[in-house]
């Protein structure tokens, strides 16, 4: 009897030890998961910060790229304008030179005409002793005498008229030259101003290109950090999922994932072989299709951790929840995902909205239950009455 009691006591001690060991392992596992989740949260915070920095830098880079492009176009237009002003200056300078030559020639003609007049006056003075009577006496006839008188008058009148015309012509040419010189001065001013504007534009373009280069380099550094953090995030997420699988399934009944539509699927919406509604060939249907209204809530069937929240060609927007113990539920064809990988969710929590993304003919939820990596009939685990 004593031996039996002693044996029973030893068995009890061993059982308590095993239970304590199991509890300790579970506690460590939960602790590791919580620590990993904290680390994941820190990594995701850093990622968000870097993503915002990248967006800001890309926005700055885009602004200066647009500015540099506009400056390039403006510089081209300004160079054309500057060249036009310089062409005008050359053209006006040529006209001024031509007018100057005309004035110089007119002044020379004027001087020669004045000299002729002066010589005539001198000759008239020298011959001043010849009286009109002498002229009359030397004339062969009275008509010749009057012709001589009229000829002198005409010559004098013609000379005076020619001199006046030359004065008017020189005045007109001089006025034109002055106008041209003023026009040239204006074009020179415009050219100088255009050159200043062009220099400023070129400086702005140079600064913009420099900013683009510097910002581009900064973005490369930030993207490298982002890639490193994303790798850490993936590694931490894998660790969380690995630890999650080491915890026993949380147990309990799964809830119906569509609160707004509690009807059993029929026909091709059931688990099993069916004629695919898009490809029109017999394929295995690894879940159930639960009809619903576009945009209505999709909830978590049970507590767990989001193992994926992404896009798949067939699934469209989809997410999956790891419930521990090798149990996973999957939700596909969503219009919008409201969770992210690594996030803990509670039973009944809204995780997505009904949609028709991916290979879908209308709004519905494609729901799967995966046990130990094998897809099973979800209707064995969910019931619209729950």
Query: How many separate domains?
Result: 2
Order of helices and strands: HHHEEEEEEEEEEE
The end-to-end span amounts to 53 Å
What's the name of the CATH homologous superfamily of the largest domain?
Answer: Methyl-accepting chemotaxis protein
Task: Estimate the mean pLDDT confidence.
Answer: 80
Description:
The protein is α+β, with helices and mostly antiparallel strands and 386 residues long. The protein folds into two domains: 1-247, Helix Hairpins; 267-380, Glucose Permease (Domain IIA) (Distorted Sandwich). 61% of the residues lie in helices and 16% in strands. It has three helices and eleven strands. It has helices at 2-126, 132-138, 142-246, and strands at residues 272-275, 282-285, 288-291, 297-299, 304-312, 316-322, 327-337, 344-345, 350-354, 364-371, 374-376. The strands form two sheets. Strands 3, 4, 5, 6, 7, 8, 9, 10 and 11 form a nine-stranded antiparallel beta sheet that branches. Strands 1-2 form a two-stranded antiparallel ribbon. Strand 1 (272-275) and strand 2 (282-285) form a beta hairpin. Helix 1 packs antiparallel against helix 3. It is rod-shaped and about 145 Å long. The two termini are 53 Å apart. The model is unreliable at 10-28 (pLDDT under 50).
Provide a quick synopsis of the model.
By secondary structure, the chain is α+β, with helices and mostly antiparallel strands.
Descriptive tags:
two-stranded antiparallel ribbon; 386 residues; 2 domains; alpha+beta; 3 helices; Glucose Permease (Domain IIA); 11 strands
List the helices and strands and how they pair.
Blueprint: H1 2-126, H2 132-138, H3 142-246, E1 272-275, E2 282-285, E3 288-291, E4 297-299, E5 304-312, E6 316-322, E7 327-337, E8 344-345, E9 350-354, E10 364-371, E11 374-376
Antiparallel strand pairs: 1-2, 3-10, 4-9, 5-6, 5-8, 6-7, 7-9, 7-10, 10-11
């Amino acid at each position: 009897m004593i031996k039996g009691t002693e044996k029973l006591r030893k068995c009890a001690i061993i059982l308590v030890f095993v239970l304590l060991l199991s509890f300790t392992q579970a506690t460590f596992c939960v602790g590791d998961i919580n620590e990993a989740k904290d680390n994941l949260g820190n990594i995701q915070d850093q990622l968000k910060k870097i993503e915002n920095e990248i967006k800001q830098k890309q926005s700055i880079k885009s602004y200066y790229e647009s500015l540099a492009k506009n400056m390039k176009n403006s510089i081209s237009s300004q160079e054309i304008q500057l060249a036009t002003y310089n062409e005008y200056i050359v053209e006006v300078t040529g006209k001024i030179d031509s007018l100057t030559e005309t004035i110089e020639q007119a002044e020379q003609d004027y001087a020669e005409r004045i000299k002729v007049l002066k010589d005539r006056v001198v000759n008239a003075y020298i011959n001043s002793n010849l009286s009109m009577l002498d002229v009359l006496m030397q004339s062969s006839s009275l008509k010749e005498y009057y012709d001589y008188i009229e000829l002198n008058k005409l010559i004098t009148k013609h000379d005076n008229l020619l001199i006046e015309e030359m004065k008017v012509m020189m005045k007109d040419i001089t006025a034109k030259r002055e106008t041209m010189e003023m026009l040239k001065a204006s074009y020179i001013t415009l050219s100088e101003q255009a050159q200043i504007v062009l220099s400023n534009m070129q400086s702005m373009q140079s600064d913009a290109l420099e900013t683009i280069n510097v910002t581009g380099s900064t973005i490369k550094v930030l993207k490298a950090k982002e890639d490193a953090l994303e790798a850490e995030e993936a590694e931490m997420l894998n660790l969380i999922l690995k630890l999650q699988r080491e915890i026993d399934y949380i147990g309990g009944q799964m809830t119906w994932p569509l609160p707004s539509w509690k009807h059993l699927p029929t026909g091709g919406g059931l688990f099993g072989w069916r004629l695919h509604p898009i490809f029109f060939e017999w394929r295995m249907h690894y879940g159930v299709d639960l009809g619903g209204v576009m945009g209505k809530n999709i909830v978590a069937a049970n507590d767990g951790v989001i193992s994926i929240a992404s896009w798949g060609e067939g699934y469209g927007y989809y997410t999956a929840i790891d419930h521990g113990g090798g149990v996973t539920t999957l939700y596909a064809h969503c219009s919008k995902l409201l969770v992210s990988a690594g996030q803990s969710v509670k039973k009944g929590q809204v995780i997505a909205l009904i949609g028709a993304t991916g290979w879908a003919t209308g709004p519905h939820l494609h729901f799967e239950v995966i046990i130990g990596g094998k897809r099973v009939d979800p209707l064995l685990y969910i019931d619209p009455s729950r």
